[in-house]
Request: fold
Amino acid sequence: MSEWLGTGLQNRSQQFESAWHLHQSPAPNGGTFSHKHPITMHRRHALISITITILLLSIATNAQTPADSIAIHDTANWHTLHRDSTCTISQAQFSTLFGHPQSLTIAIASTQHLRPGIGISNTLRPTSDIAQSHNAAIAVNGSYFDMTKGNSSCFLKENKTVIDTTATYEANTRCNGAIRCTPCALEIMPWSPTIEHTYTDTIGTILVSGPLLLHRGLQQQPPQPASPFTTDTHPRTAVGLTADGNIIILAVDGRHPGHAHGMTIPQLTYLMRQLGCTHAINLDGGGSTTLWTAAHGTVSHPSDNATFDHHGQRPVPNILYLK
Reply:
């Protein structure tokens, strides 16, 4: 179990014990007995209920173990699809990772060889189509969007032009980060409504998403830690940066029983840290999760067709690409 999780559970346990002893007094025989005042007992029972709920929620959403770390780093679980001087594309099929079968695809590249960009479409199109229109080598789906209107529901600005702004729902529930692409760099940064209202940079393209997973090596708190979006397992898409300057693009398959279970946000954060990221952010996931390469086409297993193959892409309005 990761250190931060163990510490968190220990702290909560200590808080629980302190609250319990708060309503106890010495008994004549040297033991203790509890006051029977109805308000005190009610508060204690409520506190116990709340504490147990928090403990169970923590265990359910952060159930990483040393075995998970070993599995992630076991080279026997990984095979290389593609390797050249610019990037490496690898896949792993785990019989058990975070307690379930998992299927991962990862691209590792350097901005010394490949330039990052955000591809924008006026209509919803598969990630592969937008990628090919930008002559990309590697591409992954972008951020959240309105499936009815077809536009991004997150702040999107290309140089001096603001294309979309962040919907209130997105800002309140998950969008606390952003990716910014310039011709030679990819940046992952914190985001907020205040930053959005005062953002004046006119170089490059910035796309808001989230939750922000890691910043300067530290795990970040999701905007709503107990929400189903955070605690339920889903296909996930993430991008990260390592200390040595590599870009890591990850597709976590899901919604394929027996093949790919998907992950929670805490599990995704743990995985990105295990892969060496110091900065990382979650992008749109679910049926949108798609990783495509020019050399091999769609290499992840998109879930929109409910079949464990490479043909279930969901049309999206934007992508992150390297070329």
Observations:
- Residues 38-61 form the longest helix (24 residues).
- DSSP finds eight helices and 20 strands in the chain.
